[in-house]
Amino acid sequence: KTAQVIKDETADDEAGLNKKVKLYFEDDEEYEEFTLVTTVRGSSINGLISTESPIGKAVLGHKKGDRVYVKVNENAGYYVVIESIEKVDNSDDIEIRKF
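^ that's the sequence the OP posted. Answer follows.
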């Protein structure tokens, strides 16, 4: 009764749900890959980042090559550059985090 259907309305070349993004962290001079998922599926240890997290919110809807500011709080943040975006097939991935 209170469930909401979550739709990904991003274009194929934009960061969105079930897309793997490779990010360049400018401050650390390092690359990391994450798959953007809903909050229920989020697991940073497994590289699944929620679109509600600071990184997820920042990159959502952006394209390859975009330099994006990730706001951690009112006084802190950092820049990442989106290196690549790739759609992920998760049709067999039905694991949902237990609460």
